[in-house]
Write a structure and sequence with these properties.
The protein is mainly alpha-helical. The protein has nine helices and two strands. Strands 1-2 form a two-stranded antiparallel ribbon. Helix 5 packs across helix 9. 31% of the residues are buried.
């Protein structure tokens, strides 16, 4: 069976980041560097948050202020610049995310995932009627694909395949990642998935 780009991330999260060691600072991973696909993972997770919540950018900035994040979240432009480190975007910069920026994204994504958990759970639930679940998925995937078309370079084969995928496996994995990112343990799982051991 072919692995999707986020299969490894999901597996790492389920394993509760046991391969990673933290030093005395709870936020600092030892012997790790930022993974190459971290900007892409972060940007797609935020796209899902934007799909689930109206005016999500404002909510992200407010949440960042509430939890005391840095000046990187002082405006839409600053947030946009950090997200443009994703090479699949229409507008892409060669800048790299710093260790501190990745940490702050982990805090922000985890906090937003906690707020949105009821919606995430509804989409992932297998207990509701198939018809209702299908309706929710149709609305969700349509909006997410619309955001992908708007923000990403649709000439890239990777983006084209996402837009043409009908079974929503990739989108489902993004939701699973968000659901596993809630709480203190969730932050650690998410963070571990964004770093590579050296």
């Amino acid at each position: 069976m072919n692995e999707t780009p986020l299969d490894s991330l999901k597996n790492e999260q389920v394993n509760d980041d046991s391969n990673y060691k933290y030093n005395n600072d709870e936020n600092a991973l030892l012997n790790c560097v930022i993974a190459k696909d971290t900007p892409r993972k972060i940007d797609f997770l935020i796209l899902v948050i934007e799909t689930l919540q109206i005016n999500a950018t404002d909510s992200l900035l407010l949440k960042a202020k509430d939890i005391g994040l840095s000046d990187d979240y002082s405006s839409r432009v600053q947030l946009w610049k950090m997200r443009c480190t994703n090479p699949l975007r229409n507008t892409y910069t060669n800048a790299s995310l710093s260790y501190e920026q990745v940490n702050s994204f982990v805090e922000l994504i985890s906090a937003m995932a906690e707020n949105l958990y009821p919606l995430i759970r509804q989409l992932l639930s297998s207990k509701e009627s198939k018809t209702l679940n299908q309706e929710r998925w149709t609305i969700f995937s349509k909006r997410l694909k619309s955001l992908i078309r708007e923000r990403m370079n649709i000439q890239r084969s990777y983006i084209s395949s996402l837009l043409n995928e009908e079974n929503n496996n990739f989108f489902r994995e993004l939701l699973v990642i968000l659901s596993l990112s809630c709480g203190e343990g969730g932050r650690k799982r998410l963070k571990s998935s964004l770093f590579t051991q050296i």
